[in-house]
Records
---
Amino acid sequence: MRTVFKSQLSKTLVTLLSLPLIFTACRKDVTTQPTPAETPKSSSRLSTDAIGVTGPKGVCYVEVNNNDIRNVGSYKLSTGQQLFDIAIIFAANINYDTSTQKAVLYFNPQVSNVLNNKATYIQTLQAKGIKVLLSILGNHQGAGISNFPNQAAAQAFAQQLSDAVNTYGLDGIDFDDEYADYGTNGTGQPNSSSFVYLVSALRQLMPNKIISFYFYGPAASRLSYNGVTVGSKVNYSWNAVYGTYSVPNVPGLAKSNLGPAAIDIQSTSSSTAASLATRTVSNAYGIYLYYNLPNTDVHTYLSSISNALYGKSTTYNP
């Protein structure tokens, strides 16, 4: 099974109790099957076109431990529109408080810097029309989006997320079911209700914000419970395996809200990236996923993609 490393450095995540953690960050291949999806009837649906241009939205993860998220706003199409539509702060964590046995939202120092200086990092991008989301993933402590023991626990964590969105002026939350190490600290294993309860509660708290799902981990096979689907609550979902094309199997999401193409800017070849972009347009999907935008100028690489997506090259204005 092919493994893709998600970061070149350790994510330097600190636990809530200041206990040392040693870990590696890796991505394992996921098998998904394309399925037809119905257009969901929800007031939370947003425009599916890219900013000011017809074509797929560009969604870009930035490892803020190492790179400046403002770089997302430095790239434009040759006709002046922003290349990226959504920037994702990678990443906040789900820690586990062993004394209260509850999941706790945690920000490492680099994430805290971005959030606490929202005028500098977040509002700068929003002023360009770019939406800014916060990615949420586990931290090797046993807590994750797939093992809340009951609905009340899921709702309590959803409240923490909603409070963060409101406090820092964010445009939404992105869920990534990795690094939880389910079972650690006596926590439960993934269950069928947890993720559905979580996104349902968060959608109620944030009716007009973006909720997205990085299609990976135990949550990817637990998308329906008691007649409620994750696809009816989230806005978007995208493939999690860089350098590949795989349609996320999220019933309830239309093609315009799905991203089957995913690339790592620092490791996926430009020819592969361009081929995946061409395929995205040919198959009429609405998202193209970028990961690992560096601080250096990569507009030539990005032009190979934007030419395929929009028929326009990319420019760089740091």
---
Amino acid sequence: MKDIDAATRTELEAAAFRRLLEHLRERTDVQNIDLMNLAGFCRNCLSNWLKDAADAKGVALSKDESREYVYGMSYEEWKERHQKEASPAQMKSFEESKPGH
């Protein structure tokens, strides 16, 4: 990647990010708590990072808008359709590995 110009690198990174979002939208069976426990981030983290980037650039993007972009629908709709209650084992794992963000 070091020989790729900055504009092309940004395009490749953006394409990879869009692919990640597409993958997460398809994998509604993977709960956010599972992502947090295994990887230390979840869909909400991605939406927060997107909003942080927009804020840094002075681009108006609300928390709800960034979540809708990441989830492919409103957060409330996603929770109604796909979110399950966390099991005691999931919660225990989360408490043990709780990321600092």
---
Amino acid sequence: MGGWKLEVGKMAMYMTFPVALFHYFNQPQYYEKWVTDMKQELYPPESKSKHKEFKDAIKKIQEKQEMKMLKAMEEKN
């Protein structure tokens, strides 16, 4: 078939390909960029206005629930 030269070539390819990919993808600058980009994508910085809107919505829901509870207590008495 191909002989020992083909086998040596295949073995070199089998060993070189994963090592080359490992070397390429584990460069510090690529790793730093990937980690920081992924962190910002998963945990975007919060804005003050969004935080205030969220708190206001929670307060509004709590007030509605309290009013329902008060009405239910008045009806029982």
---
Amino acid sequence: MGIYTRTGDEGQTSVIGGRVSKDDIRVEAYGTIDELNSFVGQAISLSEGELFNDLREELTQIQHELFDCGSDLAFVKLGEGDYKVKAERVDQLEQWIDLHQAENPELERFILPGGSLLASTLHVCRTVCRRAERRTVTLAAHTEINPDVRRYLNRLSDYFFAVARTANVRQQIPDIEYIRSKKVFRSK
């Protein structure tokens, strides 16, 4: 199979159920999810050693789920197939967030993205995930989508924040508080 098809040379691309412009909001949404998936792959490659076995497993599962998100958004018409992203995926993310948050110190102020190379990459994942979510919200304003994709992306950005902090904790690198931040988070 050849890598190039020449079918996109005129600025169109195939989606499930038709062809659209390469700058279509649907393509922007699932293209941003694809970009996020690449950064997740980078984070996996940086999570070496036994210290991060759980993170590698979680991030690998997330890569598959991001492919599912893109697939679900590639449908031009509802009802053309069963959606892959379900509410249970959001529930799983919440469980992982809770586990990682239990490992992290309490937050009082905003923190700067950074720390270890792994944590920094996970913060990049968080911000690209937020952009993917925004693109998905834009798409949903124009057409019906699988609402679980939007919920999944929203929770996934929270996951990346929590796990970036966990990566720093495990490497004994403190979060850097934003120096102009007042205390904005309350203890439970």
